[in-house]
Specification:
Elements: H1 14-42, H2 46-77, H3 80-106, H4 111-137, H5 139-142, H6 148-173, H7 177-195, H8 214-226, H9 229-258, H10 264-289, H11 298-317, H12 330-334, H13 339-366, H14 373-400, H15 405-430
Helix pairs in contact: 1-3, 1-4, 1-6, 1-7, 2-4, 2-8, 2-9, 2-14, 3-4, 3-7, 4-14, 6-10, 6-13, 8-14, 9-10, 9-13, 9-14, 9-15, 10-13, 11-13, 11-15, 13-14
Membrane topology: Multi-pass membrane protein
Keywords: Cell membrane, Membrane, Transmembrane, Transmembrane helix, Transport
GO molecular function, one term: transmembrane transporter activity
Protein backbone atom coordinates (compact mmCIF):
# COMPACT_ATOMS: atom_id res chain seq x y z
CA UNK A 1 0.00 0.00 0.00
CA UNK A 2 2.88 2.34 0.77
CA UNK A 3 4.21 1.70 -2.74
CA UNK A 4 0.69 2.21 -4.07
CA UNK A 5 0.85 5.81 -2.85
CA UNK A 6 3.03 6.45 -5.87
CA UNK A 7 -0.11 6.08 -7.98
CA UNK A 8 -1.18 9.49 -6.67
CA UNK A 9 1.55 11.01 -8.83
CA UNK A 10 0.10 9.54 -12.02
CA UNK A 11 -2.28 11.42 -14.25
CA UNK A 12 -4.03 8.10 -14.95
CA UNK A 13 -5.05 7.90 -11.28
CA UNK A 14 -4.87 11.22 -9.39
CA UNK A 15 -7.80 13.03 -11.12
CA UNK A 16 -10.05 9.99 -10.63
CA UNK A 17 -8.98 9.72 -6.98
CA UNK A 18 -9.63 13.44 -6.45
CA UNK A 19 -13.03 13.30 -8.13
CA UNK A 20 -14.04 10.29 -6.05
CA UNK A 21 -12.71 11.90 -2.86
CA UNK A 22 -14.64 15.13 -3.42
CA UNK A 23 -17.81 13.22 -4.30
CA UNK A 24 -17.64 11.04 -1.19
CA UNK A 25 -16.88 14.09 0.96
CA UNK A 26 -19.84 15.98 -0.48
CA UNK A 27 -22.28 13.09 -0.22
CA UNK A 28 -21.39 12.57 3.40
CA UNK A 29 -21.32 16.27 4.25
CA UNK A 30 -24.88 16.67 3.02
CA UNK A 31 -26.27 13.39 4.35
CA UNK A 32 -24.66 13.79 7.78
CA UNK A 33 -25.75 17.43 8.04
CA UNK A 34 -29.28 16.41 7.10
CA UNK A 35 -29.42 13.52 9.59
CA UNK A 36 -27.93 15.60 12.42
CA UNK A 37 -30.25 18.51 11.68
CA UNK A 38 -33.28 16.22 11.62
CA UNK A 39 -32.19 14.33 14.74
CA UNK A 40 -31.33 17.36 16.86
CA UNK A 41 -33.45 20.17 15.39
CA UNK A 42 -36.62 18.66 13.86
CA UNK A 43 -37.52 15.45 15.69
CA UNK A 44 -37.69 14.84 19.44
CA UNK A 45 -38.48 11.13 19.47
CA UNK A 46 -36.09 8.18 19.08
CA UNK A 47 -38.54 6.18 16.97
CA UNK A 48 -39.09 9.09 14.55
CA UNK A 49 -35.36 9.69 14.33
CA UNK A 50 -34.54 6.06 13.55
CA UNK A 51 -37.41 5.85 11.05
CA UNK A 52 -36.28 9.00 9.21
CA UNK A 53 -32.68 7.76 9.12
CA UNK A 54 -33.83 4.39 7.79
CA UNK A 55 -36.00 5.98 5.08
CA UNK A 56 -33.23 8.32 3.96
CA UNK A 57 -30.77 5.40 3.82
CA UNK A 58 -33.26 3.32 1.81
CA UNK A 59 -33.91 6.15 -0.66
CA UNK A 60 -30.18 6.57 -1.21
CA UNK A 61 -29.74 2.86 -1.85
CA UNK A 62 -32.85 2.26 -3.98
CA UNK A 63 -31.40 3.73 -7.23
CA UNK A 64 -28.56 1.20 -7.04
CA UNK A 65 -31.16 -1.54 -7.17
CA UNK A 66 -33.17 -0.04 -10.04
CA UNK A 67 -30.51 1.60 -12.22
CA UNK A 68 -27.26 -0.32 -11.70
CA UNK A 69 -27.89 -2.56 -14.70
CA UNK A 70 -28.24 0.45 -16.97
CA UNK A 71 -25.21 2.17 -15.44
CA UNK A 72 -23.06 -0.92 -16.01
CA UNK A 73 -24.18 -1.24 -19.63
CA UNK A 74 -23.46 2.44 -20.29
CA UNK A 75 -20.03 2.28 -18.66
CA UNK A 76 -19.01 -0.72 -20.78
CA UNK A 77 -20.43 0.71 -24.01
CA UNK A 78 -19.08 4.28 -23.98
CA UNK A 79 -16.20 6.32 -22.66
CA UNK A 80 -16.25 6.03 -18.87
CA UNK A 81 -14.73 9.47 -18.46
CA UNK A 82 -17.59 11.05 -20.39
CA UNK A 83 -20.04 9.53 -17.89
CA UNK A 84 -17.97 10.79 -14.96
CA UNK A 85 -18.14 14.36 -16.28
CA UNK A 86 -21.88 14.13 -16.85
CA UNK A 87 -22.71 12.85 -13.36
CA UNK A 88 -20.49 15.48 -11.75
CA UNK A 89 -22.44 18.15 -13.61
CA UNK A 90 -25.72 16.75 -12.29
CA UNK A 91 -24.32 16.73 -8.75
CA UNK A 92 -24.29 20.53 -8.69
CA UNK A 93 -28.07 20.61 -9.27
CA UNK A 94 -28.70 17.91 -6.68
CA UNK A 95 -26.84 19.88 -4.03
CA UNK A 96 -28.85 22.99 -4.91
CA UNK A 97 -32.09 21.09 -4.20
CA UNK A 98 -30.76 19.66 -0.95
CA UNK A 99 -29.43 23.01 0.19
CA UNK A 100 -32.81 24.62 -0.44
CA UNK A 101 -34.45 21.95 1.72
CA UNK A 102 -32.04 22.57 4.59
CA UNK A 103 -32.51 26.33 4.46
CA UNK A 104 -36.30 26.02 4.38
CA UNK A 105 -36.16 23.70 7.40
CA UNK A 106 -34.47 26.47 9.35
CA UNK A 107 -37.58 28.64 8.87
CA UNK A 108 -39.70 26.17 10.85
CA UNK A 109 -41.38 24.49 7.90
CA UNK A 110 -41.32 20.69 7.98
CA UNK A 111 -43.05 18.89 5.10
CA UNK A 112 -41.55 20.66 2.07
CA UNK A 113 -38.01 20.78 3.50
CA UNK A 114 -38.12 17.07 4.28
CA UNK A 115 -39.36 16.32 0.75
CA UNK A 116 -36.55 18.38 -0.79
CA UNK A 117 -33.91 16.84 1.44
CA UNK A 118 -35.07 13.30 0.74
CA UNK A 119 -35.29 14.13 -2.98
CA UNK A 120 -31.66 15.25 -2.85
CA UNK A 121 -30.66 12.04 -1.06
CA UNK A 122 -32.39 10.06 -3.80
CA UNK A 123 -30.57 12.15 -6.41
CA UNK A 124 -27.26 11.44 -4.72
CA UNK A 125 -28.14 7.75 -4.86
CA UNK A 126 -28.70 8.04 -8.61
CA UNK A 127 -25.45 9.99 -8.97
CA UNK A 128 -23.53 7.30 -7.08
CA UNK A 129 -25.24 4.51 -9.04
CA UNK A 130 -23.76 5.79 -12.29
CA UNK A 131 -20.38 6.75 -10.83
CA UNK A 132 -19.95 3.65 -8.64
CA UNK A 133 -19.17 1.02 -11.32
CA UNK A 134 -16.72 3.35 -13.04
CA UNK A 135 -14.51 4.15 -10.04
CA UNK A 136 -13.50 0.47 -9.84
CA UNK A 137 -13.97 -0.64 -13.45
CA UNK A 138 -11.73 2.10 -14.83
CA UNK A 139 -8.74 0.96 -12.74
CA UNK A 140 -7.77 -2.10 -14.84
CA UNK A 141 -8.04 0.14 -17.90
CA UNK A 142 -5.69 2.81 -16.54
CA UNK A 143 -3.38 0.72 -14.29
CA UNK A 144 -1.15 -2.30 -14.71
CA UNK A 145 -2.53 -5.53 -13.22
CA UNK A 146 -0.07 -5.48 -10.32
CA UNK A 147 -1.31 -1.99 -9.37
CA UNK A 148 -5.03 -2.80 -9.34
CA UNK A 149 -5.17 -3.98 -5.70
CA UNK A 150 -3.19 -0.94 -4.57
CA UNK A 151 -5.41 1.36 -6.60
CA UNK A 152 -8.54 -0.30 -5.20
CA UNK A 153 -7.19 0.11 -1.68
CA UNK A 154 -6.38 3.77 -2.28
CA UNK A 155 -9.87 4.42 -3.65
CA UNK A 156 -11.40 2.65 -0.65
CA UNK A 157 -9.15 4.38 1.89
CA UNK A 158 -9.65 7.74 0.19
CA UNK A 159 -13.39 7.25 0.22
CA UNK A 160 -13.45 6.70 3.95
CA UNK A 161 -11.07 9.55 4.65
CA UNK A 162 -13.45 11.71 2.62
CA UNK A 163 -16.34 10.38 4.70
CA UNK A 164 -14.33 11.24 7.80
CA UNK A 165 -13.74 14.78 6.60
CA UNK A 166 -17.37 15.23 5.60
CA UNK A 167 -18.53 13.87 8.96
CA UNK A 168 -16.29 16.17 10.95
CA UNK A 169 -17.25 19.25 8.95
CA UNK A 170 -20.96 18.37 9.16
CA UNK A 171 -20.75 18.06 12.94
CA UNK A 172 -19.49 21.61 13.18
CA UNK A 173 -21.71 23.34 10.60
CA UNK A 174 -24.98 21.32 10.33
CA UNK A 175 -26.87 24.01 12.28
CA UNK A 176 -25.81 26.65 9.73
CA UNK A 177 -27.93 25.48 6.83
CA UNK A 178 -26.84 28.32 4.55
CA UNK A 179 -23.19 27.39 5.01
CA UNK A 180 -23.94 23.70 4.35
CA UNK A 181 -25.80 24.60 1.14
CA UNK A 182 -23.02 26.90 -0.10
CA UNK A 183 -20.23 24.47 0.73
CA UNK A 184 -21.86 21.43 -0.89
CA UNK A 185 -22.46 23.35 -4.13
CA UNK A 186 -18.87 24.64 -4.11
CA UNK A 187 -17.43 21.14 -3.57
CA UNK A 188 -19.63 19.78 -6.36
CA UNK A 189 -18.16 22.44 -8.65
CA UNK A 190 -14.62 21.42 -7.66
CA UNK A 191 -15.51 17.80 -8.42
CA UNK A 192 -16.72 18.87 -11.86
CA UNK A 193 -13.35 20.56 -12.49
CA UNK A 194 -11.30 17.54 -11.36
CA UNK A 195 -13.41 15.27 -13.56
CA UNK A 196 -12.26 17.28 -16.58
CA UNK A 197 -8.72 15.99 -15.96
CA UNK A 198 -9.57 12.26 -15.87
CA UNK A 199 -7.95 10.64 -18.95
CA UNK A 200 -10.24 9.06 -21.56
CA UNK A 201 -11.35 5.46 -20.97
CA UNK A 202 -13.01 4.41 -24.23
CA UNK A 203 -15.12 1.32 -24.78
CA UNK A 204 -12.96 -1.78 -25.22
CA UNK A 205 -15.35 -4.53 -26.31
CA UNK A 206 -18.11 -4.70 -28.91
CA UNK A 207 -20.85 -2.12 -28.77
CA UNK A 208 -23.75 -3.16 -26.54
CA UNK A 209 -27.46 -2.98 -27.22
CA UNK A 210 -28.79 -1.23 -24.15
CA UNK A 211 -31.71 -2.77 -22.27
CA UNK A 212 -33.73 -0.01 -20.59
CA UNK A 213 -36.10 -2.37 -18.77
CA UNK A 214 -34.65 -2.23 -15.22
CA UNK A 215 -36.10 -5.54 -14.03
CA UNK A 216 -35.11 -7.57 -17.10
CA UNK A 217 -31.73 -5.86 -17.40
CA UNK A 218 -30.94 -6.40 -13.71
CA UNK A 219 -31.93 -10.05 -13.91
CA UNK A 220 -29.78 -10.66 -16.99
CA UNK A 221 -26.86 -8.76 -15.49
CA UNK A 222 -26.94 -10.81 -12.30
CA UNK A 223 -27.43 -14.08 -14.19
CA UNK A 224 -24.46 -13.35 -16.47
CA UNK A 225 -22.24 -12.59 -13.48
CA UNK A 226 -23.32 -14.79 -10.62
CA UNK A 227 -22.73 -18.08 -12.47
CA UNK A 228 -18.99 -17.53 -11.97
CA UNK A 229 -18.39 -19.17 -8.56
CA UNK A 230 -15.88 -16.76 -7.08
CA UNK A 231 -17.80 -13.72 -8.33
CA UNK A 232 -20.97 -15.13 -6.79
CA UNK A 233 -19.23 -15.64 -3.44
CA UNK A 234 -17.45 -12.27 -3.53
CA UNK A 235 -20.68 -10.42 -4.32
CA UNK A 236 -22.57 -12.24 -1.57
CA UNK A 237 -19.84 -11.45 0.96
CA UNK A 238 -19.71 -7.77 -0.06
CA UNK A 239 -23.51 -7.58 0.15
CA UNK A 240 -23.53 -8.85 3.71
CA UNK A 241 -20.80 -6.37 4.60
CA UNK A 242 -22.72 -3.40 3.25
CA UNK A 243 -25.93 -4.58 4.85
CA UNK A 244 -24.04 -4.56 8.13
CA UNK A 245 -22.74 -1.10 7.29
CA UNK A 246 -26.20 0.22 6.46
CA UNK A 247 -27.55 -1.01 9.80
CA UNK A 248 -24.67 0.58 11.70
CA UNK A 249 -24.98 3.94 9.94
CA UNK A 250 -28.72 4.05 10.65
CA UNK A 251 -28.20 3.05 14.28
CA UNK A 252 -25.33 5.37 15.21
CA UNK A 253 -27.05 8.82 15.48
CA UNK A 254 -30.04 7.63 17.62
CA UNK A 255 -27.71 5.45 19.71
CA UNK A 256 -25.42 8.39 20.42
CA UNK A 257 -28.31 10.68 21.34
CA UNK A 258 -30.52 8.30 23.30
CA UNK A 259 -28.12 5.69 24.75
CA UNK A 260 -24.84 7.57 25.10
CA UNK A 261 -26.86 10.77 25.76
CA UNK A 262 -24.46 12.86 23.70
CA UNK A 263 -24.88 15.73 21.25
CA UNK A 264 -24.27 16.02 17.52
CA UNK A 265 -20.53 16.59 17.92
CA UNK A 266 -20.21 13.14 19.48
CA UNK A 267 -22.37 11.62 16.73
CA UNK A 268 -19.88 13.07 14.24
CA UNK A 269 -16.99 11.73 16.30
CA UNK A 270 -18.47 8.21 16.24
CA UNK A 271 -18.95 8.30 12.45
CA UNK A 272 -15.46 9.78 12.05
CA UNK A 273 -13.84 6.99 14.08
CA UNK A 274 -15.68 4.45 11.93
CA UNK A 275 -14.37 6.09 8.75
CA UNK A 276 -10.81 6.24 10.07
CA UNK A 277 -11.00 2.57 10.97
CA UNK A 278 -12.06 1.43 7.50
CA UNK A 279 -9.25 3.50 5.95
CA UNK A 280 -6.73 1.93 8.36
CA UNK A 281 -8.06 -1.53 7.55
CA UNK A 282 -7.64 -0.84 3.83
CA UNK A 283 -3.98 0.05 4.38
CA UNK A 284 -3.28 -2.93 6.64
CA UNK A 285 -4.75 -5.55 4.29
CA UNK A 286 -2.79 -4.19 1.33
CA UNK A 287 0.42 -4.45 3.34
CA UNK A 288 -0.45 -7.98 4.45
CA UNK A 289 -1.33 -9.20 0.96
CA UNK A 290 1.61 -7.38 -0.70
CA UNK A 291 -0.37 -6.71 -3.85
CA UNK A 292 -1.76 -10.24 -4.24
CA UNK A 293 -5.52 -10.49 -4.69
CA UNK A 294 -6.58 -13.07 -2.12
CA UNK A 295 -9.41 -13.73 0.35
CA UNK A 296 -7.30 -15.69 2.81
CA UNK A 297 -7.60 -13.05 5.54
CA UNK A 298 -11.27 -12.21 4.92
CA UNK A 299 -12.91 -14.91 7.12
CA UNK A 300 -10.77 -14.06 10.13
CA UNK A 301 -11.26 -10.33 9.52
CA UNK A 302 -15.04 -10.48 9.57
CA UNK A 303 -15.09 -12.79 12.62
CA UNK A 304 -12.91 -10.24 14.39
CA UNK A 305 -15.33 -7.56 13.23
CA UNK A 306 -18.23 -9.48 14.81
CA UNK A 307 -16.33 -9.84 18.09
CA UNK A 308 -15.60 -6.10 18.05
CA UNK A 309 -19.33 -5.43 17.52
CA UNK A 310 -20.13 -7.57 20.58
CA UNK A 311 -17.50 -5.68 22.58
CA UNK A 312 -19.01 -2.37 21.41
CA UNK A 313 -22.49 -3.59 22.44
CA UNK A 314 -21.23 -4.61 25.88
CA UNK A 315 -19.43 -1.31 26.51
CA UNK A 316 -22.48 0.69 25.40
CA UNK A 317 -24.55 -1.33 27.88
CA UNK A 318 -22.27 -0.18 30.72
CA UNK A 319 -22.73 3.48 29.85
CA UNK A 320 -23.94 5.89 32.53
CA UNK A 321 -26.28 8.40 30.87
CA UNK A 322 -26.17 12.13 31.43
CA UNK A 323 -28.60 13.79 33.81
CA UNK A 324 -32.15 14.21 32.54
CA UNK A 325 -32.42 16.98 29.98
CA UNK A 326 -28.69 17.08 29.34
CA UNK A 327 -26.48 15.79 26.53
CA UNK A 328 -22.71 15.33 26.76
CA UNK A 329 -20.73 17.52 24.41
CA UNK A 330 -17.49 16.13 23.02
CA UNK A 331 -15.40 17.40 25.96
CA UNK A 332 -17.83 15.94 28.45
CA UNK A 333 -18.11 12.65 26.55
CA UNK A 334 -14.40 11.82 26.26
CA UNK A 335 -13.85 12.11 30.03
CA UNK A 336 -16.55 9.55 30.85
CA UNK A 337 -15.20 6.27 32.30
CA UNK A 338 -16.14 4.10 29.30
CA UNK A 339 -15.66 6.64 26.50
CA UNK A 340 -12.29 5.35 25.31
CA UNK A 341 -13.56 1.76 25.29
CA UNK A 342 -16.55 2.85 23.20
CA UNK A 343 -14.27 4.50 20.65
CA UNK A 344 -11.68 1.70 20.62
CA UNK A 345 -14.23 -1.08 20.12
CA UNK A 346 -15.87 0.94 17.36
CA UNK A 347 -12.46 1.47 15.75
CA UNK A 348 -11.94 -2.29 15.85
CA UNK A 349 -15.25 -2.87 14.07
CA UNK A 350 -14.20 -0.55 11.27
CA UNK A 351 -10.57 -1.70 10.93
CA UNK A 352 -11.55 -5.35 10.56
CA UNK A 353 -14.37 -4.35 8.20
CA UNK A 354 -11.91 -2.55 5.92
CA UNK A 355 -9.60 -5.56 5.96
CA UNK A 356 -12.51 -7.77 4.95
CA UNK A 357 -13.98 -5.86 2.03
CA UNK A 358 -11.06 -4.37 0.05
CA UNK A 359 -9.75 -7.66 -1.48
CA UNK A 360 -13.29 -8.60 -2.47
CA UNK A 361 -13.64 -5.52 -4.68
CA UNK A 362 -10.33 -6.41 -6.35
CA UNK A 363 -11.86 -9.79 -7.24
CA UNK A 364 -14.67 -8.06 -9.12
CA UNK A 365 -12.38 -6.14 -11.46
CA UNK A 366 -9.77 -8.82 -12.14
CA UNK A 367 -11.90 -11.94 -12.60
CA UNK A 368 -13.50 -10.78 -15.87
CA UNK A 369 -12.17 -9.15 -19.04
CA UNK A 370 -11.77 -5.38 -19.05
CA UNK A 371 -14.80 -4.83 -21.28
CA UNK A 372 -17.01 -6.51 -18.63
CA UNK A 373 -15.68 -4.87 -15.49
CA UNK A 374 -18.31 -2.12 -15.20
CA UNK A 375 -21.16 -4.60 -15.62
CA UNK A 376 -19.59 -6.86 -13.02
CA UNK A 377 -19.36 -4.02 -10.51
CA UNK A 378 -22.90 -2.98 -11.45
CA UNK A 379 -24.18 -6.53 -10.80
CA UNK A 380 -22.49 -6.34 -7.43
CA UNK A 381 -24.20 -3.00 -6.80
CA UNK A 382 -27.63 -4.43 -7.65
CA UNK A 383 -27.24 -7.26 -5.16
CA UNK A 384 -25.65 -4.95 -2.57
CA UNK A 385 -28.44 -2.43 -2.96
CA UNK A 386 -31.14 -5.03 -2.54
CA UNK A 387 -29.50 -6.31 0.63
CA UNK A 388 -28.87 -2.81 2.00
CA UNK A 389 -32.42 -1.65 1.24
CA UNK A 390 -33.80 -4.64 3.09
CA UNK A 391 -31.40 -3.93 5.95
CA UNK A 392 -32.38 -0.26 6.21
CA UNK A 393 -36.10 -1.00 6.06
CA UNK A 394 -35.67 -3.83 8.57
CA UNK A 395 -34.10 -1.35 10.99
CA UNK A 396 -37.14 0.90 10.61
CA UNK A 397 -39.52 -2.03 11.15
CA UNK A 398 -37.64 -3.42 14.14
CA UNK A 399 -37.38 0.03 15.70
CA UNK A 400 -41.14 0.48 15.30
CA UNK A 401 -41.68 -2.74 17.28
CA UNK A 402 -39.56 -1.46 20.15
CA UNK A 403 -36.12 -2.90 19.35
CA UNK A 404 -33.49 -0.50 20.65
CA UNK A 405 -30.42 0.69 18.74
CA UNK A 406 -28.11 -1.21 21.10
CA UNK A 407 -30.09 -4.44 20.56
CA UNK A 408 -29.65 -4.07 16.81
CA UNK A 409 -25.90 -4.44 17.35
CA UNK A 410 -26.52 -8.11 18.22
CA UNK A 411 -28.13 -8.57 14.81
CA UNK A 412 -25.00 -7.12 13.23
CA UNK A 413 -22.78 -9.56 15.12
CA UNK A 414 -24.84 -12.48 13.82
CA UNK A 415 -24.53 -11.22 10.24
CA UNK A 416 -20.73 -11.20 10.59
CA UNK A 417 -20.82 -14.98 11.11
CA UNK A 418 -22.70 -15.43 7.82
CA UNK A 419 -20.17 -13.20 6.05
CA UNK A 420 -17.32 -15.28 7.45
CA UNK A 421 -18.84 -18.51 6.12
CA UNK A 422 -19.18 -17.01 2.64
CA UNK A 423 -15.65 -15.56 2.73
CA UNK A 424 -14.23 -18.93 3.75
CA UNK A 425 -15.92 -20.58 0.77
CA UNK A 426 -14.46 -17.86 -1.49
CA UNK A 427 -11.00 -18.47 -0.06
CA UNK A 428 -11.27 -22.21 -0.75
CA UNK A 429 -12.58 -21.61 -4.28
CA UNK A 430 -9.84 -19.19 -5.30
CA UNK A 431 -6.69 -19.54 -3.23
Amino acid sequence: MINALGLLKRRQFLPLFTTQFLGAFNDNLFKTSMVLFATYEIFADATQESFFNAISAALFILPFFVLSALSGQLADSMDKTRIIRLVKTVEIGIMAVGGAGLMLARTGAVTLPLILMLAAVTGLGIHSTFFGPIKYAILPQHLDEEDVLGGTGLVEAGTYLAILAGTIVAGFIYHSTTLVAALTIAVAALGWLSARAVPPAPRLGPKLTLDYNPIRASWRLIAETMHIPRLFLAICAISFFWTIGSVLIVVFPPLVKNVLTADASVASLVLAVFSIGVAIGSVIINLMLKGRISARFSPASVIAMGLAVLAFWWVVGQWTPAADGRLFDMAGFVVQPHAMLVLLTLLGVAVFGGMFVVPLYAFLTTTVTKDHTARTVAANNVVNAGAMTVGSLAVGALTATGVTPSQLLLVVAGMCVISAIIAQRLHRACD
